Amino acid sequence: MLNAYRSTLLSSFDWLDHAFLAAGERPPEESIYNHQRHTSDVVLDSEALPVKSCQADGLIGTGTRPVAIYTADCLPILIADSRQQQVAAVHAGLNGALGGVLINTLRRLCELGATPDSLTLAIGPSIGPCCYELGEEKMASIREENLNNLVPLMAHTKQQIGNPKAIRPQAKGTTQGVWFDLPLLARRMAIREGVPEAQIELSEVCTYCMAEEQASYRRNTHFNHGYQQRFSWIKRR
Description:
Helices cover about 20% and strands about 20% of the residues.
């Protein structure tokens, strides 16, 4: 069962600290985080005080206070810029990802002095393609809108893939839709923005079938077990 998860890539930098926390654990007391609403908005830490006073889903840290995001099944993405020693935290559910929150964060970092090849991304525990079913009606809407020209980057299958690492039953199909790979979409978006593939790490931990009992919002809708927010944070030392 998962506790705090740390990225191998981010752990290689001696100038930062980070963690993808287990459900219910609190980030460091001095952490800065926003009021998240699945937007594409990105702000600096200096613009995000007091905590939760700003509505945004991307947060860039230029100081030494941790920047954090909270998730349940959405993607928690932590980013390090080795050129300017900036960090960022991104909350990217499907709507936020398609809306461009990750793309906007990467571009904002570059406006602040990063280059795509100076960026390292860690995509933490989220609902995986083993358990994330999307109905065909939703898929049709995504194809029609094709926000940010992302349809070519989407990965999905009609047949559910078994997860040999699952510690509890996977989600059951209910819509005859597709099984969607949200982490892979994020990785492909970053690569399209110029981030080297070797500098993008996926945890491959599914919050529905692999993480702790109350890690998944979607699982809670199926079983009413309750769920708790999962914080992820990153900071310059």
